[in-house]
Specification:
By secondary structure, this protein is mainly α. It has one domain. The N and C termini lie far apart (about 45 Å). The chain is elongated.
């Protein structure tokens, strides 16, 4: 969460924090080409985001496998 706050703070400092989703990503990418602080914040953000996505996928997979295991235990 701290990484997202830091990134948002840098974006707002550059005046691109209030832009919508796709336009915001485009503005962010353009600004990151010239602002080292934003580029660094983006790198940290996407690293943390990737770990979060992997954890979510692992959790969902574990839930599916466990549900399948429990369903196999039912004698219907």
């Amino acid at each position: 969460m701290e990484v997202a706050r830091e990134r948002h703070k840098v974006e707002r400092g550059l005046g691109i924090g209030d832009v919508g989703s796709l336009d915001g990503m485009r503005s962010n990418a353009q600004a990151a080409a010239t602002c080292a602080a934003l580029a660094a914040a983006n790198g940290r953000f996407w690293t943390v985001h990737a770990v979060s996505v992997l954890a979510t996928v692992a959790s969902a997979t574990g839930l599916a496998v466990h549900s399948w295991y429990l369903a196999g235990k039912l004698a219907l």
